[in-house]
Amino acid sequence: MSTDTPASSDFRSKFLFEDLAIRGEIVRLEATVAEVLGKHDYPTQLQALLGEALVAAALLTGTLKFEGLLILQAKGEGPLNLLMAECSNGGQLRAIARWDGTLPDEPLANLLGGGMSHLAITIDPANGQRYQGIVPLDGLSLAECIEHYFAQSEQLGTRLWLVTGGGRAAGILLQELPEAGGARRDADAWNRVCRLTDTLTAQELLGLPTETVLNRLYHQEDVRLFDAEPLAFACSCSDARTRNALRSLGATELRSILDEQGQIDITCEFCNQRRTYTPADLPDLL
Ligand SMILES: [Zn+2]
Q1: Ion ligand 1, residues whose Cβ is below 5 A away
Q2: CA triple 260-261-266, angle to 5 deg
Q3: 258 closest CA partner among 236, 235, 239, 277
């Protein structure tokens, strides 16, 4: 097992059970959580859910085998309208939630509006077709909802553990790998490794070094730990993208807004960056 300690407070570490057809990832976020929660005055339950969504997006992006973006989106018509987190394969994360009024202390699906709510996972490759999978939000927690998503869309077992606390968010993902030849050498391996992972406390996952977590859980297994990959908050908004969005409104609409308001102010919800466009920008926008 490698003894590298990640330099960044925010990282993803992948690991592999050498003798079992199982892979895993650990993600821990602190600076990213602070950045995201600092942008809006989020209620307490949403702070925890945003932390979980960020970790889940980072874990799921770790399963991608190509360059691109993964977007996790939970939508509904309840007091919580939207919970969204995005991670690029380069480890750039951003997240947002939209809500109305006071949030009751209820599970995610109830906050989003019970039967009307759903979870969408969008994979947006740098080269290739965008793919979106949607499942009803029928789990009690975000982790369970994502597990249901995998149960519906993939043959391979996938489990997630997501925790938050003390300004941090962390998670573990385990995934079965297809085995050469089909037959398993160790039929109970998946259940055994999942049961071991269930014994980890939130405090341990949030606080202990990755090597210690893996030793504590799987000391009887041969686990290979790969170098940690840094994760960080970054917003993909830009002046060019905002101008493209404005162009799509069309000349008549743009002229009418500018006539009425004198300028167009656009604030990015993810990073609070504000951009202002005036009639002087019209030639470029038309
Ligand atoms: Zn932005």
Answers
A1: 235, 237, 268, 270-271, 273
A2: 135
A3: 277
Sorted by sequence, the CB contacts under 8 Å of residue 179 that are 6+ apart come out as 21
215-273 tens-digit pLDDT? 999 999 999 999 999 999 999 999 999 999 999 999 999 999 999 999 999 999 999 99
Half-sphere exposure of 41 (CA within 13 A, CB side): 3
Strands 232-233 and 92-99: parallel
- Residue spans of the domains in the chain: they are 11-233, 239-285
Question: Could you report the per-residue pLDDT of 26-48, keeping only the tens digit for each?
Answer: 999 999 999 999 999 999 989 99
Whole-number Cα distances in Å, 82 to 100, 113, 189, 273: 10, 11, 37, 20
Contact 213, 171 (CB under 8 A): no
CA distance 267 to 275: 6
Answer yes or no: is pLDDT of 97 > 60: yes
Q: Does domain 11-233 have CATH number 3.55.30.10?
A: yes
CA of 167 to the centre of ligand 1 (A): 22
Q: Ligand 1 mean position to 97 CA, how many Å?
A: 14
Rounded CA-CA distance 149/93 in Å is 21
Closest CA to 45 of 197, 164, 184, 178: 164
Interval between CA 139 and ligand 1 midpoint (Å):
31
Q: Which of 130, 144, 185 is nearest to 19 (CA)?
A: 185
Taken in order 217, 223, 227, 229, the sign of the CA dihedral is negative
The two beta strands, 118-125 and 68-75, are: antiparallel
- Residues 239-285: name the CATH superfamily: HSP33 redox switch-like (3.90.1280.10)
Paired tokens of 209 = 């070094």
Under DSSP, the state recorded for 278 is: -
